[in-house]
Amino acid sequence: MIETETSTDPLWPSDTDWEALATRAVAAALAVSPYGSLADARFTVSVSVHFGTDDEVHALNRDYRGKDKPTNVLSFPMLEPDMLGALANTDDGEVLLGDIMLAFQTCASEAAEKGITVAAHATHLIAHGALHLVGYDHIEEADAVHMEELEVKALANLGLDNPY
Prior knowledge:
There is one protein chain. By secondary structure, the protein is an alpha/beta fold. It is built from 6 helices and 4 strands, in the order βαβαβαβααα. The chain has helices at residues 18-31, 54-65, 81-84, 104-114, 118-133, 141-157, and strands at residues 2-8, 44-52, 73-77, 94-103. The radius of gyration is 15 Å and the shape is globular. The mean pLDDT is 93. Its cofactor is Zn(2+). Its EC number is 3.1.-.-. Belongs to the endoribonuclease YbeY family.
């Protein structure tokens, strides 16, 4: 079972159920990855999603990545990718996959540039972040292409257009 715990800064619009959005986005991303079976696991797979501010994400980006600027989303995996395969042997309890942090001002600005809603863009960013939690990255071009393909597929499964 996938459990998504959320916290939301007051800057995020109150007309969206951010917790439900996060849950759908995480589940959709995991479903298109080799870890789709986590949704049916006998244990709880927990992902924390914080809908934060540019200031919060900027500080984390500076402190943990050495990049002194805000960014749209950060992911903090709690498991090494090689440990993910061993999850199949877990019978019960809870496994924390990691944390995903979104920056409202950057997210809202990017959504406006793309002509989409903040909710649609946040869904994409959470799916992107969830893929990072299970070991995907976009450092090398081939990895970036593969990760984007998974994101497009996850978003299509949610009825959202290709963000690229």
